[in-house]
Design brief:
alpha+beta; 6-stranded mixed beta sheet; elongated
Length: 220
């Protein structure tokens, strides 16, 4: 296992972690964090030195976003497990029950235990949007897991994180495909039998407001 930095909590501040709250605020942290950089992977410890969680460090009001409530290496195996679990939960809901819908949200950030990460599916394309530097530093592992753990459904992965990351970091990156690009300039998806043209390059969010599916069905 790689060496992880350590973040200690003040006495009594471990209760939120024990309740599985995914964030650790700056006021809960004891000691100096000057040696840490945004995006560092850290172990969160109580005053006695016991490891309570593993997460991403980020300087600000939310200083740690928790990825695992225990000691866990955040590597390719971690991402494969997370993507496989999320896909298993949702593939049967969309494909058999809604054969006329081929776009849906695969990863819901905190809702899937991955604060700072959203992944939307449009046909055979997965759009990743990272909202934390730590998440984006693992973008290649996330993209590989999407290709490996979705039963061959995902053929292309697009990173659209530049607009959602801090400027001092995002100025060094560009949105684009990870690996094999998708050649079509106009991509059409189906939702409740209606066809929509998706633009994940210039469109808002990941290209479409998937959470409005039921409202569009009602309007139709």
């Amino acid at each position: 296992m790689d060496k992880y930095a350590e973040v200690y909590l003040k006495k009594g501040r471990e209760n939120a972690v024990k309740r599985f709250h995914p964030w650790i605020f700056s006021g809960a942290i004891a000691g100096n964090t000057e040696d840490l950089s945004d995006g560092d992977k850290v172990f969160v410890k109580n005053k006695q030195g016991d490891i309570l969680a593993t997460g991403h460090f980020n300087r600000g009001s939310i200083m740690v976003r928790i990825l695992d409530f225990g000691k866990r290496e955040i590597n390719s195996g971690f991402w494969n497990d997370k993507i496989k679990t999320a896909y298993s939960k949702r593939k049967n809901h969309f494909t058999p029950r809604h054969p006329d819908t081929n776009c849906f949200r695969l990863l819901h950030a905190e809702g899937d235990g991955l604060p700072g990460l959203v992944v939307d599916i449009y046909g055979d394309v997965a759009i990743i949007q990272c909202h934390s530097i730590g998440m984006h530093k693992d973008i290649q592992n996330i993209g590989n897991a999407l290709l490996q753990e979705t039963d061959g459904r995902i053929l292309h992965v697009f990173d659209k994180s530049k607009e959602t990351l801090p400027r001092n970091y995002s100025k060094e990156i560009e949105n684009g495909f990870l690996g094999k690009p998708q050649d079509e300039t106009e991509y059409i998806v189906s939702e409740n039998g209606h066809r929509f043209q998706i633009d994940w390059v210039k469109g808002q969010k990941t290209g479409f407001f998937l959470d409005q599916r039921d409202n569009r069905k009602l309007l139709g």
